[in-house]
Amino acid sequence: xxxxERTEDYLFKIVLIGDSAVGKSNLLARFARDEFYPNSKxxxxxxxxxxxxxxxxxxxxxxxxxxxxxxxxxxxTSAYYRGAVGALVVYDIxxxxxxxxxxxxxxxxxxxxxxxxxxxxxxNKSDLxxxxxxxxxxxxxxxxxxxxxxxxxSALDSSNVATAFQTVVREIYxxxx
Length: 177
Ligand code: GDP
Ligand code: MG
What we know:
Blueprint (H helix, E strand, L loop, with lengths): L9 E8 L6 H10 L14 E8 L2 E8 L12 H4 L4 E7 L3 H5 L1 H11 L5 E7 L11 H11 L2 E4 L8 H16 L1
Parallel strand pairs: 1-3, 1-4, 4-5, 5-6
Antiparallel strand pairs: 2-3
The chain binds guanosine-5'-diphosphate (GDP) and magnesium ion.
The site of magnesium ion has 7 residues, from helix 1.
Protein name: Ras-related protein RABA5a
């Protein structure tokens, strides 16, 4: 008889969080569309973007959620986090204040989603070498203490952007399969 060949469907919801202007929307724009906005406004944020990825020969869809700038008002809603299995918690290596906010974002993440959400700490804007306020070592130490993956990225020059998303998706896939 006829049996329909069907690939297994994996759809992982992943959220981007972190202070305003750390580069969340540009990380997603770079990853999903290979675009960068030098003077982006919070209005460029889409609700989410679905990106097909290949993990061990399996097609996996990452549904990556971006805020529309509401983090400025500390009003990211619980609906944003609902069902998330992965998170990129982003700071700007050239603004220490955004690194100091990480613990607050982790608290918020754990209040609104499963404790086991796969999380990577992302130090973005690694291209701003002369303006660096947070060392790579500090980022690593925080990530290790909190049990997070860690990476530094640049949405501007593309470095490590795909790896950041792939690290999360691969780990979720490994846990679930
Ligand atoms: P969001 O508020 O976290 O979504 O941040 P945006 O993605 O809107 O970025 C805020 C500002 O930082 C924009 O002017 C971007 O062009 C800039 N930006 C984002 N990522 C980078 C990066 O990796 N390097 C540099 N130099 N600027 C960036
Ligand atoms: Mg944004």
